[in-house]
Amino acid sequence: MQDNPVYPIGQPHQPWTEAEKTHWRAQQHKRRSYHDDVVTRVEALGQGVQVEQYGQLAYEANSYPLLALKIGVWRAEKPTCLVTGGVHGYETSGVLGALYFAEQIAEQYSDSINLLVLPCISPWGYETINRWNPMAIDPNRSFLPSRLAAESNAVMDYIAAMPWPIALHIDLHETTDSDNEEFRPALAARDGVVNKNWNIPDGFYLVACTDRPQPAFQQAIIAAVEKVTHIAEADAENKLIGAPLEQRGVINYAAKKLGLCMGLTDAPLVTTTEVYPDSPRATGENCVLAQVAAVRASLDYLLATAKASG
């Protein structure tokens, strides 16, 4: 790890006030279209997909419908599985991977699983290529009773109203060079602390939940994804992003305590994917396919273990 230069907004060791947050927000600009990239693809889905709007975000002149995809005919006897993308809007393959899965793959599982896909939880972050929402709040640290972020609140309310418990949740993310170049320095400046960068892993890895790690489940996903892209190797301290390696390509986080989307439910099977799009060994398409492979492997594992248990 190494210290990062001082961030250009705010004063060292002083948390941001509303003035600094306003300054930061004024520097953010639309760089792509949520409507064109996400909404239009959702609208083009076939009759086997029920689209539900679970919320609406209004940020200044922009309004964003929050969309959920319920795939197939839902029945109480089938397990309910949740796929989420775009909690961090800038993590492109999470959004596109969720959409690709819904478009091309999900129907294959619809007879045996109640599938729920939330392809882009943070549309403003998607458009401005940001980790935060406009209030400089990280939605992926906001799945908490304190309810800090509107993006997270809408998801929590929607999932709480589900008729059956979630059996599996896979949350699609990326780790990027911009984490060290922009987002971690901005976080340190916002909170008035000293920034310490972590080593960015070159390759795919998983973040399991500390209180329900399910090593065999994680291992099955790693094995499937390895057929599509390379798996990240641990650093010299046997860590990935500062966390001890639990098994090849897997670290653990305290999901509920940290307010991560991964901790949203009490699903027995839960994981967060991390793709590295800046690798010289990766392409945009490759990253999307890695996300899809992870989703498929997670569902296959659920079905296989259910069959084995009788």
Computed CA radius of gyration, to the nearest angstrom: 19 Å
CATH architecture: 3-Layer(aba) Sandwich
Q: How does the major sheet shape up?
A: 10 strands, mixed
Overall geometry = globular
Q: How much strand content do the residues show?
A: 15-25%
Number of strands: 12
Report the uncertain regions: none
**H and E order:** EHHEEEHEHHEHEEHEEEHEH
Quickly count the helices: 9
**Span of the ends, CA to CA:** 48 Å
Helix content: 25-40%
CATH superfamily name? Zn peptidases
CATH class: Alpha Beta
Question: What is the residue-mean pLDDT, rounded to a whole number?
Answer: 96
Q: Order of strands side by side in the largest beta sheet?
A: 2-3-5-4-6-12-8-11-10-9
The tally of domains stands at 1
Q: Looking at CATH, which topology would you report?
A: Aminopeptidase
Classification by helices and strands: alpha/beta
